[in-house]
Each structure stands twice: as structure tokens, then as C-alpha cells.
Task: inverse folding
């Protein structure tokens, strides 16, 4: 059965505080994905993800009051900036319903226990733990108590931090996915270490293993799938030039299409652990492979020796390792030089 990677488009807060923008991103995600080369319709993205913060459990008072003068700021202070971008529970519910209408699953990153209030309105398909909260054990316990499947990002943690998190969660359930991640924005290729994916698959085989990407472009998540990642998470946006800190590092509409297309094509390309001759190369083999042929004119009745033979295309005659079926046989007809020798031309 063809493996299907669970692809999450992370809107995060690229909605810029607007439900309408979030819906427009969902519309882009829900578009059909077609490989134009072969005209094949491919499975689209599986889910979108939002982020919910509780500003009472976000930063220290002094950090929230700190001036935020970036061109990407939506407020004079960092607290005002964060408040502008925050959608409330009802707005998350509205976006949840819209994603479901479009056939997408819905994942929520919850950054504080207070954010669990949204579960009064709806139940996400999965809850995501951001890399920053891998060590936030009280939050992990509160999330695990819901019994909703959980996804952990390891962008700021090692094996010890991951094991501590799993020890808390698995007291309640084992519905856990682990995403290799690097919390560097954007991630430099030399730091990403994709070989962590097979390491996680070997050492945490009871869990689903994936990759959350912060690199630029689509190369790394596609390579992660080739290494066995079963989940891919990638930031997405309507326009990479929009105001906001995450847009530059996100995929735009065309990038979303290209990443999903390439991941689905890699899934098909992976195949099985074996070496065999594919049925689809039969015609090419006949056209291009080489067969035993005459290197000189061979007269009717002449006994064929190895010195009379070499190899030419097409490949529908004897192979070189079958040449002993020709050597020592008598030619039944005149065989011109540089012609493939077929069974009907020689004595049997």
C-alpha cells in the first residue's frame, strides 16, 4: 500500500489577526494538486494548523511592555503586537468549521493551559506542542488529559527533554507523534541534521515520526519524506511579502502546491526494498540493450567462433552470457557484418 505522508500547513499566526485571511489560506491549501508532467491528480495537504496563546501565560510583564519597533509589528509594545494577532476561541471554532468544510483536518498548537478553554467549542484532530513547550510539563499533562492525539516538536530539545515529555504524556495515552525540528529561523542546511529522522524511527519506533521544517524552500521536507518522515509540517501564507515575522519563511500559494506535489511524487517513487526489472522498461530494453552480433561477414555453413562476435543494439537477441549458444554452431544463412544473430540463423 502506498505510504501517504500526513502534511500539515502551519498557518500559525500568518492570518495576521484576520479570520478571512485564515480562510483564504485554507482555500489555497484545498486546491487540487496536479502533476502537470503526467496529468496525475495527487492527494492534497491533509491538515492546517493554528496557534493559540493565552497572553496571561505568555511572557513576563516587562517583556510584554517592551517596545516593539519592527516593521512587522502590529503594536507599539510586544504585548500589543501579540494581542493584535490573537484570535479568540470562537474565531478558532469558525476557522475549524471552515477547514472541515474544505475536507481538511485541524491541528491546534496550544501554548498555555488557559488555551484549553477552546475545547468547549470543538475538539481538534490533533494537539501540537511547540518546541518551546517541550519542557513545559504542566502544559503537556493538561493536554494529555484530553486524550486528543498529540504532536511534539523537538526543535529545542534533545533525548532527555523528549523522554521527560513522553513520560508525562504516556501516563494518559500513547497517541503521540514526534517531529524532528530545528528552531532556527530560517534553518541553515548544515544544522538541520535530517539523519535524526531514522534515529527517531529506530529508537522511538512505537511513535509516528515526522519533521517540522523551518528551512527556505521545499527541498528539505521532500528529503525528509525520503528518509522516512510520516508527517511534514511547514509554515504557509498567502503572500511571503505580507507584514508579519513568519511570512518570509513560509511557503506561498505556488510553494504549497510544489511541496505537496513533490512529496506525493516521492511517495510513489520510494517503492520497495528490492532490485528487479520493471515491466515499464521492457520496450526500452529491446531498443537499447545489446545483443550478440556479427563483427564480420559470416558465410552460410561457416562455424561461428567468438572472434566473429561483438555486441550491438537492439536487445532482442542473445546476451553476451548466452554466446555459447552461438559459438560452435553453423550459420544457416549468410550473415552480414554488424547484424544481430537470432536463433533461426544458426543450427540448434
Result:
Amino acid at each position: 500500500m502506498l505510504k501517504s505522508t500526513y502534511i500539515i500547513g502551519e498557518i500559525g499566526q500568518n492570518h495576521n489577526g484576520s479570520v478571512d485571511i485564515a480562510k483564504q489560506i485554507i482555500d489555497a491549501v484545498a486546491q487540487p494538486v496536479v502533476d502537470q508532467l503526467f496529468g496525475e491528480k495527487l492527494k492534497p495537504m491533509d491538515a492546517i494548523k493554528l496557534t493559540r496563546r493565552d497572553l496571561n501565560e505568555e511572557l513576563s510583564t516587562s517583556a510584554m511592555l517592551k517596545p516593539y519597533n519592527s516593521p512587522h509589528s502590529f503594536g507599539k509594545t510586544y504585548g500589543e503586537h501579540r494581542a493584535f494577532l490573537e484570535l479568540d476561541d470562537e474565531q478558532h471554532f469558525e476557522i475549524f468549521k471552515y477547514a472541515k468544510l474544505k475536507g481538511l483536518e485541524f491541528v491546534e498548537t496550544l501554548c498555555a493551559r488557559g488555551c484549553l478553554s477552546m475545547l468547549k467549542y470543538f475538539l481538534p484532530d490533533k494537539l501540537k506542542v511547540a518546541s518551546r513547550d517541550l519542557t513545559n510539563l504542566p502544559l503537556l499533562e493538561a493536554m494529555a488529559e484530553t486524550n486528543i492525539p498529540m504532536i511534539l516538536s523537538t526543535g529545542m530539545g534533545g533525548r532527555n527533554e523528549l523522554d521527560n515529555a513522553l513520560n508525562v504524556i504516556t501516563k494518559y495515552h500513547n497517541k503521540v507523534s514526534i517531529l524532528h525540528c530545528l528552531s532556527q529561523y530560517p534553518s541553515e542546511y548544515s544544522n538541520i541534521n535530517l539523519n535524526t529522522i531514522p534515529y527517531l524511527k529506530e529508537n522511538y519506533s512505537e511513535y509516528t515520526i515526522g519533521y517540522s521544517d523551518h528551512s527556505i524552500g521545499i527541498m528539505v521536507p521532500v528529503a525528509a519524506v525520503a528518509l522516512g518522515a510520516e508527517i511534514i509540517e511547514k509554515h504557509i501564507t498567502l503572500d511571503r511579502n505580507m507584514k508579519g515575522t513568519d511570512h518570509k519563511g513560509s511557503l506561498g500559494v505556488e510553494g504549497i502546491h510544489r511541496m505537496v506535489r513533490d512529496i506525493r511524487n516521492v511517495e510513489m517513487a520510494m517503492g520497495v526494498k528490492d532490485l528487479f526489472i520493471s515491466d515499464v522498461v521492457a520496450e526500452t530494453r529491446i531498443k537499447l540493450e545489446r545483443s550478440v552480433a556479427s563483427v564480420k561477414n559470416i558465410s552460410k555453413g561457416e562455424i561461428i567462433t567468438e572472434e566473429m562476435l561483438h555486441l550491438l543494439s537492439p536487445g532482442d537477441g542473445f546476451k553476451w552470457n548466452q554466446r555459447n549458444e552461438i559459438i560452435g554452431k553453423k550459420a544457416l544463412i549468410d550473415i552480414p557484418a554488424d547484424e544481430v544473430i537470432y536463433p533461426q540463423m544458426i543450427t540448434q
Notes: The first helix runs from residue 19 to 29. The radius of gyration is 30 Å. The chain has a mean pLDDT of 94. The chain has two domains: 6-270, 279-345.
